Fold these 3 entries.
Entry 1:
Amino acid sequence: MTELAAVKAALKTQAVETPSWAYGNSGTRFKVFAQAGVPRDPFEKLDDAAKVHEFTGVAPTVALHIPWDKVEDYAALAEHAKARGVRIGAINSNTFQDDDYRLGSICHPDAAVRKKAVGHLLECVDIMDATGSRDLKLWFADGTNYPGQDDVRSRQDRLAEGLAEVYERLGEGQRMLLEYKLFEPAFYTTDVPDWGTAYAHCLKLGDKAQVVVDTGHHAPGTNIEFIVATLLREGKLGGFDFNSRFYADDDLMVGAADPFQLFRIMYEVVRGGGFTSDVAFMLDQCHNIEAKIPAIIRSVMNVQEATAKALLVDAEALAAAQASGDVLGANAVLMDAYDSDVRPLLREVRQEMGLAPDPMAAYRECGWAEKVVAERVGGQQAGWGA
Ligand code: AOS
Ligand code: ZN
Ligand code: ZN
C-alpha cells in the first residue's frame, strides 16, 4: 500500500460518536433558544444522528444520557438505531440534576444519597446490557464551594468506594470511563478535577477503568496533547469528549476555536497508537444558536481534517530531525502536515466510500431539515448542565 493509500484506509475506519443531547434544544443559564424540528424523543434523536452518519460515513454510534434519554424498552431503542444504520454508544450517567445532589452524589456526606447515586450508575450498566454499549461514561458534578465545607479526603474515599461498587458490576467487554473537569458546578474543590485524580482512581480500579479527556475541561493554556500522550503511554486513555472552548466549558464545535490544538492532540493519538486501539472519539457539544445537524456534521468533518493532517506527518523525517537536534526542521515537518489542505483528500475518501464529497451540501439538499420542521412539533430540551 502506498503511504497515501494507508492514510485513506485509516480515515475510512474512523469513528466519531455523536451525543444525543447535541440534537436537542440547549442553551445557557440565561436562555434556551428552541429550534424548529428538533427531536421529541430519543428515537428521533437517533434518526437525526443517522443522518450525520449517512452523509459523513464516520459517525456510526450515538451516546445516550440517562435519564434524558429514558425509554421503556432500551433493546427497542437499540433496534431502532440498528434499523437506521447506527448503534448506541456510551451510556452517560447523570448524578447532577436531582435536589438530593446539592452536596454531591457518590461523594455526598450522607450514605443514603451515595446509595441513590450508585444505584443510578448500576442502572446505567443494566441499560448497557440492553443496548450492547461498551462504555459507561461517568462525570460527577461533585465538589464543594467553600473551604471547610466538607472533608476533601473523605470525599475521595467515598468516591473510591462508589466507583469500586460499579466497577464490580461491569460485564465482560464493558468499561468505565471517568471524566474529569477543573471546575463547575463546584467552584472551590471538584472531586475529579484533573487527569491525575481520574488516573489514580482508574489505576486502582483496574483495566476496565479508563480516563476520558474532555477538551473543554482544563485551565486555559493547559497542554492537552501532553496529557493525551501520557495517558496513552500508560494504557489509560479511554476516550475523548471533543468540543471547543474559548473561556471555560463552552461546548462549542470541536476544531472551531483552535484547530491547531486539535491537530496536536490527534498527532499524539496517532503517535501513541490510539487511532487503532479502543479509544472512543466522542463529541460533547451543544448547539445553542446554530442549526444542530449541520453543526454536528461540521464537527465530525473537523475531527476528520485534524486526523488526516496527523496521519500525514512524515514520521521518518520527524524522527530524523529530532534525533539530529534539528529544532526548526522537526517543527517544520509537523507544520507541513498541519498546513496541508486535506479537503481534496477527504473528498476523495468520501467518494471511495460511496458518499457525496461535500457532506454539508448533501445534507442541505436532502430535504431532512424541511421534513422534520414540518413533522415535529414541540422538540425536546437536551437537558441542563451540558
Ligand atoms: C460536563 O461538563 C461533562 O462534559 C459531561 O460529559 C456531561 O455529562 C455532558 O456534557 C452532558 O452534560
Ligand atoms: Zn464531557
Ligand atoms: Zn463539559
Note: The chain is about 45% helix and 10% strand.
Entry 2:
Amino acid sequence: MRIDVVTLFPEFIAALLGCGVTGRGAVRGLIEVACWNPRDYTHDRHQTVDDRPYGGGPGMLMKVQPLRDAIDAARAASPQRARSIYLSPQGRRLDQAGVRELAREPALLLVCGRYEGIDERLIEAEIDEEWSIGDYVLSGGELAAAVIIDAVARLAPGVLGNAASAEQDSFADGLLDCPHYTRPEAIDGRQVPGVLLSGDHAAIARWRLKQALGRTWLRRPELLAGVGLDAQRRALLDE
Ligand code: ADE
C-alpha cells in the first residue's frame, strides 16, 4: 500500500515509521510512505506557509499556494489515484470498520492541517473525504494521520508477524479484547486463570469469547448492538 502525507511536520510521520511493526513494514516495503512539505513549495524568503482568514478573527489558515502545490506533487508521485483524506474534527469518525475500509485502498493521500485549518475550496477541489480520530481538537492533523497509517499498515498483508494477530484484535469481531497473561504464573499472589494452563483449546477459546463478551457488556454495551456471533462462536458457547 502507498500512503502520501502532506504535512508541515514530516518528523511526526518519520517517528512512527521508526518504530515497531509499522516501521518494519516500511523497511520491508510492505507499506510505502512519502511526505510532502508545503514549506518546500514556498517561493518567498520567509517560506511562508500561513495566511490570514477572510472575515478576520483569531488564528491563521494554511497558505493556499504551497499547500496546493504539495498536494499536486504528492498526486503526481503516486502510481495509483489515491483516496484523498483531510484530517479534521469535522470528519467521519474513525473506527475499526473504517480502518478496514481504508486498508483496502491501494493508495491514500493524507492531508494534515495546521493553524485553524485549510481553505474550504481546497477541500472541495482536492479532498474525497474528511476523517476525524475523535471528538477533541488536536493542534494539527499529523497525529491523526499517524493513527490512520499505523492502524491501516498493521492490516496490510505481511506487516504483522502472525497473520492471525489482526483477526484476534479488539474490534475484529466487534467485541473488546479478552484479558491476556504471560509468565510468571503468579504475580503477588494473582494467578493466571487456570483454564489458560489446561491445554484444552476449545475451553480456552470459550473462556476468551466469554471474557470478550462480558467486558464489552460492562465497558461498551453499545457495541453489542452491532455484534452477531457467527455459527462457530455460538456453538462454542453452547458446548
Ligand atoms: N485535527 C485536529 N483535530 C483532529 C481530530 N480530532 N481528528 C483528526 N484531525 C484533527
Note: The pocket of adenine is lined by residues 87-89, 132-134, 136-138, 141, 144 (CB under 6 Å).
Entry 3:
Amino acid sequence: SRSINLAVVPGDGIGQEVVAQGLKVLAAVLPQDVKLETKEYDLGAQRWHRTGETLPDAELDSLKNHDAILLGAIGDPSVPSGVLERGLLLKLRFAFDHYVNLRPSKLFPNTATPLAGRPDIDFVVVREGTEGPYTGNGGSLRTGTPAEVATEVSLNTAYGVERVVRDAYERADSRPRKKLTLVHKNNVLVYAGHMWKNIFDRVGQEYPEVTTDYLHVDAATIFFVTQPERFDVIVTDNLFGDILTDLAAAVTGGIGLAASGNINPTGEFPSMFEPVHGSAPDIAGQGKADPTATILSVALLLRHLGHEHEAVRIEEAVAADLAERAPGTTRTTDEIGDALAVRVAS
Ligand code: IPM
Ligand code: MN
C-alpha cells in the first residue's frame, strides 16, 4: 500500500535508542510516494511506575488501528519480573493473535560467531506465539511454604497447532530447499508432543514437495551448533522456540543481529516487529546498543506489508555494512543507524 500507519512502542532500556535507528532507516528506505505516519505509545516500566498501568484497553484499541507495530524492548529490573512481560508484551501477542513468531537466522559476513567460516546458515524458526506454557495456565498451592506445589500447564489446541504448522509448510514450500523440521519432545511430553507430530504429518500430506524431519529439542540444540546448515524452516512450540531462537542468535552473529516478527497472518490484527534481544538496562542510554536487530525487524515489517523491494534493500545494506566494517572498531548506536540509512538511500 502507498501509506504506512505505524505504531511505535520504544519501551524500556535500549528500546528507545534502537527504535530511533529503526525509524531512521525506515524513513530513508521508503520511496517518496509512500506516506509514513507514526504514533508513539508510552508503554513500559516508566508508565507502570507512574500510573500502575501496563496496557490499558484504550491503548490496546488504538493500537489495533495501525498497519503494524514496531517495538523496542520491554522489561526493567525496577519492575517485578513478569509484570511487564505478561501485562504488556505477551498481552499484545495474545490480543492480536500473533500465532506466528517468525525468527530468521542468517550467518552474515564478518560476524563474531563460533560458526564463522561455516557453510551458509540460513534458516527460519516459526515459533508458535499464543499457546504452550505461555498462557498463564497454572497455579501455586501453599505458596512460599516448604510444601509448595506449582504447576505451569502447557496449553495446546489442535486449532492452534494446525494453523502454525500450516504456515510453516507454506514458508518451507516457498523456499528453495523446501525442508521443514518439527522440534518437540514427544518422547516425554507425550500428549502435546504426539498431537503436534500427528498434525505435522497430516498437514504434510498437502505439501508433497516439502521434505520433513523431526527432532527432539535437546538434539536440536546440538545440531544448531554442530550442523546448522541442516535447517531450513523449523516449527516448534512457544517455549522451545523461545529458547532455540536465543541459541540461534548466539551462534549466527549475536543477539544484536536477531530480528523477529509477531505475525497475525490473517491480517485481522496488526503484526508486531521487534528485536529478539531484551532491554539491556546495563548499557541503556550509552549509545552502545547495536540497532541492527531492530533495523532487520523493520525489514520483516516491510516484507509483511508488501514492500519486498525495500525489505531486501535493508537486508543487503546490513550484509554490506557488516562485510565492510573495519575490524576491531566499535561504533555507536547512532553511527550504525546512520551508516545503514545512507546505504539504503543510495
Ligand atoms: C522473547 C522474550 C519474551 C518471550 C519474554 C520477554 C516474555 O524472551 O521475545 O523471546 O519469552 O517470548
Ligand atoms: Mn526470548
Note: The chain has a mean pLDDT of 95.
